[in-house]
Amino acid sequence: NVQAGESTTYRKTTAGQITGKLFFIIFFIQLFLITVLIVFLTIRSFVSHSSSNHLSHPLHWYLPLLTSIGCSAIAAFSWLFSIRCNPSRTIKTAFWLSPSLTCVAGLLLLAVGTACSLAVAVAAIIFALIQSLYACWFVPRIDYTSKISSISQAIPTSGTTKFIALSILAGATYSSLAVSGLGGATVGTGSLSLSDALFVLAILLSLAWTMQVIRNISHVSISRVGYLYFVHGIESNTFGAYHGTIKHSMGNVCLGSAIVPVLGIIRGSARVISSVAGDTDEFLCSCANCYVGVAARLVAYGNRWGFVHVGVYNKGFVRASMDTWETIGRSGLESVIDSDLTGSFCFLCGVAVGAACTIVSGSWTLAMERSYATEVSIYAFLIGYFMCRIAMAWPQASVSGYYVAYSENPQSLRFDSTIPDCITQLQRSSY
Asked: Three-class SS of residue 33?
């Protein structure tokens, strides 16, 4: 059965292969250049410290952030274990814990007392309030989200836990490398020059892209395993799917990792604008409907559902996104997917872990070296967020594989009545 399933997958497609190879090359070039930059900045920071007694000790920077990496790994595993054991309670916990921790992180930044920390603190507190309001809207959808999460993850898999552990280890390794470079740029001189600010920006962009690539390698591999099971009844090994992803689809994973976060922000902002504008079709002297329409169109060219076909059929990422989005639309699953907020849950888990890392590292730095507390708090948040998202790739990829498989063959006996019941309920509520 596995061999038969393998013959139906990894069909070579020419569309998108050139673009995928180009992004593959670009990704590893930037990885090499950033590594060289980080080595240079790290050496410079220790040389500057040894020759200038007035500069702060580099360990005052590194230890809190390295601690946040360890804390984020532990917290990420905790969320993952919890969602697999008790989805309903875990989802409810995420929706009250995330705004609480975000608010505490904002109060910590207020205590730092700088203009930058004040701006970030205000943004954090406002975001905490938004999360609280969003949780009120989400409550009626908890049961369906927890049920679909349980169903999609209850498939026979082999090696997935070890695979996720190795992915988290890879993320922790690169985060440690980035921390060294960020410290070299910030602690290496008495003040942050324009060139050092550009170095910091380059390292943060590289960190975001690289962590997204690590996460989406897991997403592609795990969603492939789920898709093969629900479509063909094949029980696959996650490490086998991983090798296939690295061999056939790495370039398109790099491309998708750059596109999906940007389009996700556009789509999220479009929903906010649509909610605020209401029936007026105006938002800050702009056409709200136009922006929403453009955002909806862009999502068709880059969405996380496309990662399923990238892993299964080795399609170019844009083509895979268009095909899966068309299939989902044809099957009428858009409203059902909107009712399932697994993606929002995974996002809030990341925010919660990021806020927790901010509290740990920020308070530590505030006690030792106040001048770096804001920077350390922000970097700790980003590291915690990305580390958790790597772990939460498992439930999100499982749900993606389930939905794409269902949209292609809703009559399959491998699916229960969960989605049809949700469709019926949504149709009744629309009347």
From this structure: helix
